[in-house]
Design a protein that fits this description.
This protein is α+β, with helices and mostly antiparallel strands. It contains one helix and three strands.
Length: 78
């Protein structure tokens, strides 16, 4: 019997556009945002790309929320 096994590594990174620390309460939302974007991009054949989101969970986040940027990359080890 012939088997096939492959591993893919997905790496992503977020940062705040205002150079401040990422707020702890935004981490789950950023993870969800990254996962949704990466799945969509993978379906379109991409293995890397940019991430962008604006999160507002409280009045402390300002009227428009906090802007985040990021990137992702999918690699297949040899």
């Amino acid at each position: 019997m012939k088997d096939l096994e492959r591993k893919k590594t997905i790496t992503y990174r977020w940062w705040r556009d205002d150079k401040q620390d990422i707020k702890d309460e935004h981490i789950a939302a950023l993870e969800e945002s990254a996962n949704e974007r990466i799945q969509k991009m993978m379906a379109d054949g991409y293995t890397s790309g940019i991430l962008s989101d604006q999160i507002r969970m409280s009045d402390d986040d300002g009227e428009e929320g906090i802007k985040y940027s990021g990137w992702f990359e999918i690699t297949i080890p040899e």
